[in-house]
Automatic annotation (TrEMBL):
Belongs to the cation diffusion facilitator (CDF) transporter (TC 2.A.4) family. It comes from the Bacteria. This is Cation transporter. One of its GO terms (cellular component) is plasma membrane. It is a multi-pass membrane protein. It comes from Aquirufa antheringensis. The lineage of its organism: Bacteria, Pseudomonadati, Bacteroidota, Cytophagia, Cytophagales. InterPro entries: Cation_efflux, Cation_efflux_CTD, Cation_efflux_CTD_sf, Cation_efflux_TM, Cation_efflux_TMD_sf, CDF_Transporter. Residues 6-200 form the Cation efflux protein transmembrane domain. Keywords: Membrane, Transmembrane, Transmembrane helix, Transport. Gene3D superfamilies: Cation efflux protein transmembrane domain, Cation efflux protein, cytoplasmic domain. It is found in: Membrane. Residues 220-283 form the Cation efflux protein cytoplasmic domain. GO terms for biological process: intracellular zinc ion homeostasis.
Length: 328
């Protein structure tokens, strides 16, 4: 499904690119050149997104024990690099025409093509972002966001061309290109920043909060403590590590069953694959004050209050006591 969507994006981008370059050569407008160059990025990005989604769908192997999903983040970063390269060329081209008065023709046709392509890119981008988020595909989301931003650029292109067409202020064409190139630089840097963060396994606060909320909503009394929680995203898949504190008087069979139930609960977090590694910790005497198991046979202190599980304390590699923290 994801590959078919990217293939559709590629076909649409090729058709739009051909139309934009045709009106650029007919008009000579640097603003239209800006729009056409961004269409090249759409085509190249769609090609690499298709390949990255194909790689991400491959099963794990000995060389890739966590799967191939991170290639989608690389695809997103490559798209950012291409955007920066196109912006640099637009800066150079626009500066060469800033003080000249080139003859601009067929601006009305250029406005029509830019307006129609902006509508198509906007709808396609909205659809790709929606499907990418539902399938947890960074490559689809990145491609959709770029198409959506390309649609916004198209609307600004129409506005700049209309101003040039009706006022004959030809300098507007170059100035608008500078503005669009600056916006493209911001867009490219933003995509690269997100890609590098994901490749470096930087914590995604929204995703970590989603996991935290899910665990808290399904919490059982037997789960005395949870800490050292790690959430990593591999394309559309998730990898979760944590330490779960359970009663130390349980036998191995019961501990295994409880951990299995904990893992199955986490796997319901999202539709895509979730891989979980749980380290079982035995409870300590200091845990009694926040352990709510009523029939505990080895309790050393009365229950006083529960400890809130949140992003801050679940990420720590420490057991949580009411007032102090001890190394696990």
């Amino acid at each position: 499904m994801k590959q078919r969507l990217v293939l559709l994006s590629f076909v649409v981008s090729v058709l739009i690119m051909a139309a934009k370059f045709a009106v650029y050569y007919a008009s000579g407008s640097t603003t239209l050149l800006t729009d056409a160059l961004e269409s090249i990025i759409n085509v190249v990005a769609a090609c690499f997104a298709y390949y990255s989604i194909y790689l991400a769908s491959l099963p794990k192997d000995l060389n890739h024990p966590y799967g191939h999903g991170k290639i989608e983040f690389f695809a997103s970063g490559l798209e950012g690099v291409l955007i920066l390269l196109a912006a640099a060329y637009i800066f150079l081209h626009a500066s060469q025409h800033l003080y000249s008065s080139p003859e601009l023709k067929s601006l009305d046709v250029g406005m029509a093509v830019s307006f129609v392509s902006a509508g198509i890119n906007g709808l396609m981008g909205y659809f790709l972002v929606k499907k990418g988020r539902s399938s947890h595909s960074p490559a689809l989301v990145a491609d959709g966001k770029h198409l959506r931003l390309d649609a916004y650029n198209g609307i600004l292109v129409v506005a700049a061309l209309a101003l040039t067409y009706f006022t004959h202020w030809y300098w507007v064409d170059s100035v608008a290109s500078f503005l669009f190139a600056g916006f493209m630089c911001w867009q490219g840097i933003h995509l690269m920043r997100e890609s590098v963060a994901a490749l470096m396994d930087e914590t995604n606060p929204a995703l970590f909060q989603k996991v935290t909320d899910w665990v808290v909503a399904n919490k059982k009394e037997e789960w005395i403590d949870l800490h050292n929680l790690r959430v990593q995203q591999y394309g559309g898949d998730l990898h979760i590590d944590c330490h779960l504190t359970l009663p130390r008087y349980w036998d191995l069979h019961r501990t295994h069953d409880e951990i299995h139930g904990f893992e199955e609960m986490l796997k319901e977090l999202q539709a895509t694959h979730v891989e979980i590694f749980v380290h079982a910790d035995p409870c300590l005497d200091e845990c009694c004050s926040h352990c709510s198991i009523a029939d505990c046979a080895i309790r050393q202190a009365a229950f006083s209050k529960k400890i809130e599980w949140n992003q801050m304390n679940l990420a720590l590699n420490q057991k949580h006591f009411n007032e102090t923290l001890a190394r696990s």
